[in-house]
Each structure stands twice: as structure tokens, then as C-alpha cells.
Amino acid sequence: MEQIKITINGKECVCNDGEYILKVAKDNGIEIPNLCDHDSVAAFGACGICAVEIIDNGKGQAFPKLMRACATKAQNGYVVSIDSDRVLRSRKIALELLMSDHEGDCLGPCKLNCPAGTDVQKYLKQISEGNYHGAVETIKKVIPIPASIGRVCPHPCEQNCRRRLVDEPLSIAFLKAYAADKDLEGDTFRPVAASSSGKKVAVVGGGPAGLTAAYYLTIAGHNVTVYDAMPKMGGMLRYGIPAYRLPKDVLDKEIAEIKALGVTFKNNCKLGTDITLDELKTDNDAVIVAVGAWKSMQMRVEGEQLDGVLGGIEFLRDISSGDGEKPDLKGMNIAVCGGGNTAMDACRSAVRCGADNVYVIYRRTRSEMPAEDIEIEEAIEEGVDFKFLTNPSEIIGENGKVKQIKLQVMELGEPDESGRRSPVAVEGKFEYLDVDMVIMAIGQTIDAVGLDSIEKTKKGTVSANAATFATSDEKVFAVGDATNRGASIAIEAIGEARKCADVVDSFLEGDITPFREKFVSKRNDSDVDLSDKPKLERVKMPVRPAEERKHDFDAVNLGFDDEQKVMQEAKRCLECGCHDYDDCKLIRYADMVNVSPSRFSGKKNINDVERKLRVIERNPNKCVLCGLCVRICDDVAKQGILGYVGRGFSTVIKPEFNNDETISVCANCRKCFDACPTGALKLIEY
Amino acid sequence: MCSCNCNTSNIDLTLLKPVLDKYAGVKGSLITILQNAQEIYGYLPTEVIYEVANATGNSPAKVLGVATFYTQFRFKPVGKYLILLCKGTACHVNGSEMIAQTLKETLGIGDGDTTDDGLFSLSFVACLGCCSLSPVMMINDETYGNLTPDKVKKIIEELRSR
Amino acid sequence: MKITVGQGSCGIAAGAAKVLTKLESFFASEKIKVGITGCIGMCWLEPIVDVTDDNNVLHRYVKVSEDVAAKIAQAVVSKDFSVASEYEISEDDNSFLTQQTRVALRNCGLIDPENINEYINIGGYSALKKVVSSMSQNDVINEIKVSGLAGRGGAGFPTWFKWNAAKQSAGDEKYLICNADEGDPGAFMDRAVIESDPHSLIEGMLIGAYAIGAKEAVVYVRAEYPLAIIRLNKAIEQARAMGFVGNNILGSSFSCDFRIKAGAGAFVCGEETALIESLEGSRGMPRLKPPFPAQEGYWHKPSNINNVETFANVAWIIENGGQAFSAMGTEDSKGTKVFALTGKVKRGGLVEIPMGKTLREVIFDIGGGIKNDMQFKAVQMGGPSGGCIPAELLDTVIDYKKLGATGAIMGSGGMVVMDETTCMVGMAKFFLDFTAKESCGKCVHCRIGTKRMQEILTRIVEGEGKEGDIELLEELCEAIKDGALCGLGQTAPNPVLTTIKYFRNEYEAHISQKKCPAKECSNLVIYEIDKDKCVGCTLCSKKCPAKAISGEVKKAHSIDADVCIRCGQCVNVCRFGAISKK
Predict the structure, then answer these.
(1) Which of A289, A347, B62, C455 could form a disulfide bond with A336, CB atoms 3.0-4.6 angstroms apart?
(2) C526-581 CATH, one of 3.40.980.10, 1.20.210.10, 3.30.70.920, 3.30.70.20
């Protein structure tokens, strides 16, 4: 056959005369997006995504129309563009239209709602198979300290777990901790760091954010040193979260793993005091600021300066710092102001330090409390006295020491922006509590010592770009509680730091690549029918009885003891995320052109998922009607079991009809499954 | 396919035999065979689709695919009076929307449905080609033109009382 | 004395069959035979009875009822035509015909379509004789080339070129196919030709088959045209019996068989590759082009496809010479074109004129202007693939290029006239309802794109349109034009693009002011009773299905806009013109 030359995106390609452009490109290592083309069947031309622009037909003329690369034969001298503006525009709209009619979850709500984007579905599957090492490998793609996080995370994954619509969410966090513990027991998973890049990075702050950034930058081959003001690494996980929630030996083991990877730790080194930002900048190629938010916010009430008034952060830090020596609060009455997790940590720690009476002052009711419900529950069990609908209005002292707290009685008014009903003072109605200590746990803020040269937000936090984490200093990046919105949960800080590590890596390579959220297809809970799912009980975490645990800082949770139950629990996963997400051509292309299909949102062609083909489940709502399964079943498998039903928008591909049973004639060749460009076909166990 | 509660086992497939014999071996006759089958049964029962698939060597999926592509084919028995309302351009311009509304209200059914008493089936069709009489509908083989809502109601009343 | 009754589909719909029976009953004893003809194309005057008296004077009676038929019978028997003269066609109405130049429709309404002899008597099949006895394939193709005949189905591609391509394709087995799947809503000229003059089609096809070397000819007819199928079948049988169809036609070495295939209801089958799929018994989903049907068509053999009107011109061209045909028309477009003139026009029917006349001449001179003396607003040409041409472009000359420049197309010849009461957004929605329903579903752009356009248009006419919707529509239009696989999809945006181009203000009024300037979109109008005109007859309140009208007898009534369902029945029943849309 005669050989000809064509040019695709500037690359000269030699090919046989009359070969399709798509194939020529493929043979030359150029990918032209397409959904309906397949080597084993004839060109079809349905998806239109492979449309290219022929800017020269070899005779100096351009084609007026876009041409489908799958069905246009190459002719000598053709100059083809596969990513001109016009081509991209056309491809984008085609994909937006497809996505506007696409109904499915690329990712489970657990992964979508995890700030770090942990692949929950995958590691639950691995846990259900007893593959803890694999599970930890999966988790450590985004979280370097899973045993710790599994114990303390307020788990947005569980709050959004779709099984909650059937019975109860999976015990995701504890399963993660279980797998991580198991893995730490034996041959622990440890990634291999890339060969050294010769670049140096300083991370200021050894909390979850700093450790995470350090971990992933080290894996990327950079030389990372973490500077921390405290004697040990761990940040708030060590000095904020009490040991009864996160035993320090667990944290130690995980931090040791990070160190073992090659990260250098420098403790007792406070920015602005022991070392300056300028010094760090001079000695390093990049600096990441992850100093956290270590100052409790003031309540701005009279008497705040009295002896015996202290911040929740400071209170917890004092307890954690003292080498196992807990302060003795025997005989004291303590008021903790606030309704968040720090307030819970403070009140429960106060109980453990022997206080006589511990009160929690909260201006709304229990149902509005931001703290995790289990924390409130356990605090009540441990004897904490909750004073709901009260607000500190004055701390009354005697001889410069706290004596009493005056509480304004509140009632609930109209809902505010957050949807919570806002508290309103009941005029003239007060209560008094005799207390010896007042702990303020109403929020925390950054201690910005040594960061004078960096631009701040109005709140006083470091201003960092949401996509690049860059600060006003081009060499300095910032993540975690110290930035923008301020303090949040550990997993948020970890998520940011993980992304920041990638950005800094690209920065060190010389070309900064901002983080970009991938486009995914999502379903609302209300679109999901779970009526056929059987109810399965959630495995309970065994805890020590309140009477026993309230006297010490040992772990409250005893940990799962029955491996069978753990695997059973992991099997409760509904596997909401698409099995094909990693291989799905549709989503890859959609993300590539940055689609926004919501502008075309309209009716979707919704049909029942069916399982007539013994080993294959067909989900027509993810089908793009490329017809590959039909054509392959006809022309390659010679079975002819599949066909189109209907016409136009409501067309659906179905196996033989009117037969509720599986189809006996299917040869089980799975060729349709192999060819499907999306997750519409799924292998099932037969 | 048949979603009604009719007893489909009553379908006499021997009626189909002359048609299948006539087109045996004539390639490309699938649509013609289905048209003949619909003439016989009034619609295409599932058994008939399988029988046609069997006789023509096509897979049932292919036969169903063809049948569901064309609006002429029905999969449910049709009423005694089949009303075809023209939705052509001229009819649209001359108020076919109002006629459609009137028919839906008077019969209590929508496009493609049959009344519970089995008397009327309603189907909106592409241009019937009687544009000068628009708006137009056809009931069985008779054409009714220059329709108004009142006229439509009278026609339906008249057919009901027959 | 010769009496004929026009028996086209729409004539029959208007009562022509009853008139025929009535007349036959009168003359059963008189031994006067009442004949039939097809459709003369004066649809608004149906039923039509032609009486040619012994002096060879034609008396054409229009809008004939059974009572009028009795009068006509009386006139015939008494030979005193004055008794029925008031029912004869007016001179004004007759000008509808006298202003036309008929080639494709030359025999329509004049001969009995069910009797081949009538066709032969006026010179039918002599072109075929000439071709098989004295012309080569190239001679025929050349004659067609000289004529400048272009495909009348819509695209306007030179007929000779397609014939030549099919002829030059290798292989003995070739097919000639007639596309009679006339699907454009508002077009019915092909049906009229088949019903009224089937032999013109058959003869044209036979000549085409001879030219390309096809031994088999197939007519793909819409299933919705039962009468056309019956008459065409009859005509083929008669032609076969007389040796025009079959082996060794007219003693020559040319053999060609004829077949009819009935479509089953799918507009997309008007697209030639979808038509081929359908002919082969498959779903009518278009194939990729190339290969073109001339290389690889029906059963993957070289095939040529033309539409009915194209073939109907062929015998005339052979008879009268290509030059006679090309002498008519414009530089760009030769010969005549048939239009189906309908909508809000006084005289609706079939109009055949030489290319080069203006839209105004067709609509106002031939069509008599707008019904009820309303204002002309736009004319829709080319059906779902075409566009709306506004009043300011009424003087546009009818040829392929000039019409194309407006954004509309010649199309198959549907010409739907609209007046000020037609909402142009509603019109665009109407066409998108159609194309979305008729989309085969194969390609993404058409399957989902037309659906999305339809949804956007629907929300606009329902008063739910959003700022940016016009731009979104335009963006979709461009993408679909560029990305759809076949002609149906690629042209589906045309009705939207032209209405946006010429009537953007109407779109804007719907979206930003929630008003329908044509007062057609029911969600956007309110009905009001003029207190001064209302006499309190209570008729409207009795008629109102929503019980939205209240008022005492003999006192002005009022409509509760919240309850009103905007059915418009009150307007229709009010005898005092007191109710209007706002």
C-alpha cells in the first residue's frame, strides 16, 4: 500500500494511504479523544468527540467543517489540528451534553466529602479482604498518619456515608485506625522516596499539616526539615487532643515512620524567636508555613484577666506537656465555655484531673452543638454538667482570683446563616455558678510571631492562595489552621498540605501547577434508590465504662477485637463510587476540557439497572450510547443479544427483552465489558 | 414489552405464517413483515416479535430495535378508534395545540395511550399532508379537517354513542 | 361531456369521495361516466368537480357539497350551465393556477391517475421510448446536465452529477431509489404527484435507472400516505402489463423491475443513508459518509437516490430538451420548483413556478395574501431544516443561493405563512419538538443537543427563560451544526438561528419582560373583558371550563386571572368582541 505523510498537531506521521486519521494518530502516540471507536469493529461516528480540524487538505485549503477523525481517511499532505480552539469548543460541548445526561457517582460521598480525598471505598474493600497493608498503602496516598486520624477525625465521610440512608453509616474512621494499627504491628507500609532532587524545603510547624507536607515532599525526593516550637512533633494532635482519645504511643509510632522516610525534625525551635523566616528562605528553596492556630480566642467579658481564667488550648497543652503528670484539680469547680470539640476535650480532661464539678457553658442547645455527638454523650456519662442556653456575661473574682461566673440565660430565636437557630438573651435573667476556674474554648487563632513580612487576612491569618497555597512571598507557602479561614479539623489541614506538597513540588521543578479539583459526576442522595438494600448492623466500638475511664487518660476506645467483625463491617460498604472511575474515558475527557455541564442541565434518560447478562450488570444511566457493546456482540462475539430500544433521546441499549431471567445465550465472553468506555457495564459475581 | 394485562398467550401465530412464507428469503423485509404482522394483530405482541426473529434469522434484540425505532409500530392493543392528530406546521400555525388539549381532556388520555374502555387510542403524528384543512385529525381512515374544540368534542361524542 | 372529481387525499378529506358517489348516483341511468383525477393543488377549494361540456368549455366547480353536486348534475343533464354558475371558480381564485408554470405537476388534476391510458394519451412514456431506442446512458446524463436540474428534496445537488457518479461506479448490480419519505411537516407535493400522476414518477425513474445502469428501482414511500401507495402500486402493475416495467423494456435490452417499500414513521429516513438502512430492514440510523451511496449504497452497491419531484421533471426534460428547462429560472437555479403553500395564507395549495420569482409574488399574488387581512409576519421555508424569513425579506428571489443567504433553505418546498398572531419563539420550539422527537439517537449532538434546545425553548415560552438563554441557544446551535452526524441534526438549529436572527426582540420579550408579543404563549397572556362591550350575556362564564368568569346577568363580567387556564374558549364564544388577550 502506498505510504503518505500527514501532520497531526505539528507531528509528521507516515501512514498507509486511506487510513483513518484516528488510527494514524494512535499509531503515532497521539491521543485523539473518542468514545465510540474500537479496533475490532467498523467506524461508527456517534460520539463526535474525535472531531478534528483539517487546516490544510494538502492543497492549501482548509476543510470548512470539523471532521470525525474515526471516519476520515488520511490523504497525503493533510495538516490536522486536534486541539484548536474550535476543536476544543466542539469537544467540550459534546462532553457537556453527554455529562448532562449522565447519572452516576464517579466517587462515593465518603471520598467526595473527605477533605483529603481519601479513597475510602478502595481501602474498605481491602480491609474486607483482610489486606491491611494494602489498605494503608491506599490511605497513605493522602494521609501519612492514619492510625492517629482514624481515632480523632470527626469523619465527614461517615456523616455523608450513603448507608446512613439504609441503617447507619459505616464505621469508616475506626476501620482505618484498625488497619493502620495492624499495619504498624508488622512489616509497616513505607513508600520509597524518589531519588534526591537536591532541593531543600523548610516546613514550619510539625502538626498534621506540616508533617503531611514534609512526608509527600520527601517522597517526591526533596530534602525536608520540619521546625517546631514544641519539644516533640505532632502539633495539636499531641498538645491539643487528650491522650484518652489519641494515645501518644500511636502518634509516636506514626511520626517515627515519617522520620524514617528521611524527614529531618528540629524541635524546640520557634519561628521568630529561634529562627527567622529570612534565614529559612536563604537556606531553602521553599518554605511552607504550617504553624497552626495556638491561641485561644478571648470572650471579651469582664473578669477575663482574673487568675483562674485560661484558654482551652493552653489548658490542654499544659496537660499534654507534662510527661504524663496530670495537674491536680481535686476539689475545684470548673466552667468550660464553648460547644466545640476543644470544649469537650477540656471538660473531659478536667474531669480526669479530678475536678469536683465540671460545667459546660453553651449558649444554644445540645442539638446545635458543633462538637461530635459521641463526645457530648461520653462527657455526660463522665459527669459533666451541661448548662445549655447560657452565656458567660461576667467572671466575678475575689482577690484577683475567679470566684463565680455570671451567666446570661438565652433562648433560641430565628435560624442564622449556618441554619442554626441563633441564641437571644432573655432580658434580665441571669444565673450564677461558683467556680474556681474558667476555661475559654470558643475558638482559636494564630500566633503570628515571625511572620510579619507575610500578608495576612482580616482575621489575622496568613493569606494563602486557595489553589497554589502561595503567600505574598513567592518562596513561602502556607497551609492549615494558620491560613485563611483559620482553625478547622486535622483532616482539612492534611488535605491542604497534601495538595500543597504537589504544588511546591511543581514549583521546585520550575513550573508552578495550581491544584485543580477534578470534575466528577455526582448524584444527590435523593436521586438514589436504596430500597432493595438489606439492613446490616454497624459494628460497635467497645469502650471502657465511664466510671473507670474518667479517672485516667488511657484510651476510652478499646479498639476492635474481632477481625471477622471488622471485615464484616467493611463489607457493609455500598460501593457507591463507580468501579470504572480510574479507567473511564468519559470522565477523563470531561475533566480534560474542564466541562461545566450544569448549564445544559435538563431531563435525564433514566432507566433501570439490569442484570440479565449473567456476569454483567448494565447501568443504562451511565451509558453514552456509543453502541460498542451492541456492535461487538453482533460482529465480534456473533451473539446479537444486545440491541437499541426506542429512538432519539430515550434510546436505551438492552439485552433481549420480556424475560426477567438471565439470558441463557450470552457466551459470557465479556467483550462488551472490555470495550465499554464508561462504567455502564460492571462485572458481577455469578 | 407488553405492559398491559392482556393475556398474550391468546396470540394465534398461525395467522402470521402466510406473511413469513411470502417473505422467506427476501432480504431486507423485516419492516414489511412487521407491518403485515401489525395489520393482522393490531399491534406487535411479544410472541410475534420472537416469531418474526426466529423466522427471519434475526436476533429478537434486533427485531425489537427496529420495531421501536419506527413510530408506526405499537406494542399494546389499539382502541376501536385510532385518532391520529396531525402535528404538522400548518396545523400548528392554525391551532393544533388547542385541539390536542381538547382531545386529551375529552378522552382523559395522552399521546400514545388508549382509553380504559378500549374505545379510543390517541396518537400525535407528523404531517398528514392535508395542510389546507388544518388543523386535521384522522380517525381510522376518515379525515376530519378545520377542527375546533367544539367540533372535536362533537365528533368524539358521536363515536362514543355509536 | 366529461365529468371528473378531484380525488387527492385532501380532496377526499374535504368530502370529494361523497361528492363522487353522489354524482355517480345521478348519472347511473344517464350512462355518463364520472371520472376521477388527482389533485389540482387548489386545496382551499376542495372538493373540486370539473365538467367539460360538449363545446369543450371547462366548468370548474369548487367547494362542492353534496347539495351543490345535485345542482351540477342538473346543469349537466339540462345542458344549462347557468343553473350552477354561482359555484364555478371565481376569476380571482383561478389566477392561482394561471400564474403558475407547471412541469413536475403538469398532469396533476388533469388525468385519471389510476388509468395508464390517460397518461399515454397525453404523450406519456414517449420520453422513455426515445431514451431506450435512441439515447446512450451518457446522452441522458448529458441532457439532464444541460437542464440544470438539481435535487428537489432539499439539498439542491446537481442531479446529473449523482447519476454520473453512480453510473461510473464499478459493478453490475446498481439501484435506483426514489425518496418519497416526504417528512417535512407542511410539505405535500410529493404525495400529490404520486397520487395524481404516478406514471410521471415511474417514467422519470425508469429513465434514471437506464442512465445509471440499474436493474431495480425502489420507491420508499411514507406509511402515512396510504392512497399514494395504492395508486403507485396500481400504476406499476399497469406499466408492467404494458411493457414499460420489467424485462426488455419496449423491446430494448434495458430491463428494470420496480418495487415499493413503505416507511414506518421516521423523519430521519429522508436522509439518504438512513433511508438505505431502513430499506434494508434496519433502524434508520444514518451511516457515515463517505462512502456515498453512489459508491456504496443499498446492500452496499452503487445506488442513486432522488426525490419524487426531481424524477417528475425528467420525462419532460427528455421530451422538451434540457435547454427548455434551463431556459426557466435564474443563473443559479434552473427550471421550476413546486411549493406547498399553507398556513395563514388565503389560497393554500400547490404552487409551481419558475425559479426567480419572489416570495412576495408567491404569497401575495398567487396565494392571495394573508387570511382575515392580518399582517404578514414571516414565512417558514424548508421545514425543520429551514428557517423563518421575515417581512422585510419578502422580495427575496427564489433560488437556492438567495434563499440560503437568508438562513432558510429551499428545502423540499414547504412554505408556511405566518401572521402577527404566530409567536416566533413558539415556532422555533415547535420545530425543535419535532427534531428532538425525530432524532434517531445515534450521535450525541443531535440526541442530547436538540433535547436541550427544546428544553430551553420550552422554558422561554413558558415564561421561565433566563438571561443568557439566547446566547446558550446560539452556542448549542453552532455546536450542533458542526458536530451532528447527518443532515437532520446539522440543520436542526436553523429554525432557532433564523428566528433569533430576525426576531430576537421576541425572545428578549419572553425572557426579560415575560411577555409574548404575538400573544400566543398561554403562560404569558391574560384574558380580559372590556366592561364597555360586555352585555352580561353569561355565555362566556357558562363556557369557561375553569369557572374563572363571574358576573351577574346583564352586567359586565370579569375574569379571575389566577383561575383562568387560558384556553381561549371565552374569546371564541363572545359575540360582542368583548374579550381580548393582553
Answers:
(1) A347
(2) 3.30.70.20
